Amino acid sequence: MDKLHLELALRETDDGMRYATMMVVVSNAGTSLGALLYPLQQNFQIITDRINSFFFITAAFRENDAAYIWVMHWLSKQPVLQNARNVEVTTGGFIGSGGLASFRTNDDPGPSTKDKWHRLAYVPCLSRPITFWYRGRWIYAVRVNGEKTGFWGETGLLLSILTFDNSDLQMSVYASDPMDRWRQVAACSKRPLQSIILDPGVKEDLLKDAREFLRSREWYRRRGIPYRRGYLLYGPPGTGKTSVIQSLAGELGLDVYIVTLSRRGMDDAGLAQLISDLPPKCVAIMEDIDAALVHNINRKKSTGEKDGSDQAEDESPVPRQSQRGEYERPSGVTLSGLLNAIDGVGAQEGRLLFATTNKYDALDTALRRPGRMDKHVRFKLTSRYQAKELFCRFYEPAELPDTEKKGETPVVLVEQDVNGPGEKYRAVDPDDAIPHVAADLEVLASRFAEAIPDRKLSMASLQGYLMGYKTSPQDAVEQAASWAEREGRPDEDGGNMREGQEG
Ligand SMILES: Nc1ncnc2c1ncn2[C@@H]1O[C@H](COP(=O)(O)OP(=O)(O)OP(=O)(O)O)[C@@H](O)[C@H]1O
């Protein structure tokens, strides 16, 4: 006789994530019961994702990002890692590489006589989760490989916090899994739009346009126009294209769906499936939409169809219109497949699609045309106005940390001696510290902006530079001109990456 058991199970997947799952166990079940359960199996991942996102806030950090290094540093300080049975020991590989020289976490009291000289750091082993309590919250951390972070091809860290209070949850980020289904990879609090510094009016205009679109469903319906809106953000790397999209999504209260065209295994059918599975209202992002077109040319080269004499043609990634869809990209997505996914019959209504590119002119005109990409926004290298605003925002007076309120001298890790016995610290002159520069901030910011050449450097590089002077804005101003001069110099191969990427 058929038996049906219901069990509540804690499932641990190979990416180390745990899901509380209602399992249906059937023994000797007949075909009809199997058919009954089929939709359940199909929705299993969706259900477990929902349960997971209800109980946990999860943040994903990719290994090449500075934030990964900060979080690993913070993790290595947690007592659980000092006492864990399975840890990876590092002599500071991540400490040295990410500019931790001037980094200090809120909980990091600086050197004590006891731990001043330790130089080994413990970090979680790959795929071996660690769990611990931190300030009354249960934390679950696991280092995972490649696709499990949603950042294809990169190792990363997933950090989940158990919480029943979802008020901090501003938006969820989804990426596709190898089966071309959407999976939630992170839930983040929204990035304030004020933190994105663009020329006046640019982000306000984008926000206004998106808001207007979301209010206009009926308007579109009456005119028979497909209710979709596409935005093409183009310009050099590090100018804020991705950041502004994430910030807009938070502002509009929409979840983010990342479409990675170059993901291994992605093809036209998979892309169409993903696009048609988008929820009715969301922000879909296709980053570096030009990259797939460039791969067409690489493919030809790799098959030996092209030789050195065709160099010029190879370097132009613009496919002729007559060749549309003729070549398959390594990802398996063709241009015609992409065009269909964006506005074919299966394309989801109500979604906002944001595509980014560093090579505007390389895009097929069919991809750029209104109806697919309705609004084109150019992002430029940093203006003096942006440099000044960034400086002000970076050194904005903050709430005094508790230690400083009590009059204790703040201590900052200033350098790490890789050959010596450990880390070196110095006490920060309170007059240098961030909260004390409010009065001079405007003056310093103006001097900083003057030292930065107009439209030559990206905001990302300026931000990276200021990170080196987190607590010393004076020094940041003093050194800015020589740094900008070095930074703007052509690279050894004669090109200038910062200027040469656009169009
Ligand atoms: N306009 C900006 N205002 C504030 N921060 C910025 C701005 N532009 C870039 N940044 C900072 O630089 C980093 C990279 O920015 P982002 O990824 O948004 O650039 P991007 O234009 O999308 O680059 P890419 O084309 O390489 O994807 C982020 O940490 C972001 O905070």
UniProtKB/TrEMBL annotation:
<keyword id="KW-0067">ATP-binding</keyword>
<keyword id="KW-0812">Transmembrane</keyword>
<dbReference type="GO" id="GO:0005743">
    <property type="term" value="C:mitochondrial inner membrane"/>
</dbReference>
<dbReference type="InterPro" id="IPR050747">
    <property type="entry name" value="Mitochondrial_chaperone_BCS1"/>
</dbReference>
<comment type="similarity">
    <text>Belongs to the AAA ATPase family. BCS1 subfamily.</text>
</comment>
<feature type="compositionally biased region" description="Basic and acidic residues">
    <location>
        <begin position="484"/>
        <end position="503"/>
    </location>
</feature>
<dbReference type="GO" id="GO:0016887">
    <property type="term" value="F:ATP hydrolysis activity"/>
</dbReference>
<dbReference type="InterPro" id="IPR003593">
    <property type="entry name" value="AAA+_ATPase"/>
</dbReference>
<keyword id="KW-0547">Nucleotide-binding</keyword>
<feature type="domain" description="BCS1 N-terminal">
    <location>
        <begin position="31"/>
        <end position="196"/>
    </location>
</feature>
<dbReference type="InterPro" id="IPR003960">
    <property type="entry name" value="ATPase_AAA_CS"/>
</dbReference>
<dbReference type="InterPro" id="IPR057495">
    <property type="entry name" value="AAA_lid_BCS1"/>
</dbReference>
<keyword id="KW-0378">Hydrolase</keyword>
<dbReference type="Pfam" id="PF00004">
    <property type="entry name" value="AAA"/>
</dbReference>
<feature type="region of interest" description="Disordered">
    <location>
        <begin position="476"/>
        <end position="503"/>
    </location>
</feature>
<feature type="region of interest" description="Disordered">
    <location>
        <begin position="300"/>
        <end position="330"/>
    </location>
</feature>
<dbReference type="Pfam" id="PF25426">
    <property type="entry name" value="AAA_lid_BCS1"/>
</dbReference>
<dbReference type="InterPro" id="IPR027417">
    <property type="entry name" value="P-loop_NTPase"/>
</dbReference>
<dbReference type="InterPro" id="IPR003959">
    <property type="entry name" value="ATPase_AAA_core"/>
</dbReference>
<keyword id="KW-0472">Membrane</keyword>
<dbReference type="GO" id="GO:0005524">
    <property type="term" value="F:ATP binding"/>
</dbReference>
<protein>
    <submittedName>
        <fullName>P-loop containing nucleoside triphosphate hydrolase protein</fullName>
    </submittedName>
</protein>
<keyword id="KW-1133">Transmembrane helix</keyword>
<keyword id="KW-0999">Mitochondrion inner membrane</keyword>
<feature type="domain" description="AAA+ ATPase">
    <location>
        <begin position="227"/>
        <end position="383"/>
    </location>
</feature>
<keyword id="KW-0496">Mitochondrion</keyword>
<dbReference type="Pfam" id="PF08740">
    <property type="entry name" value="BCS1_N"/>
</dbReference>
<dbReference type="InterPro" id="IPR014851">
    <property type="entry name" value="BCS1_N"/>
</dbReference>
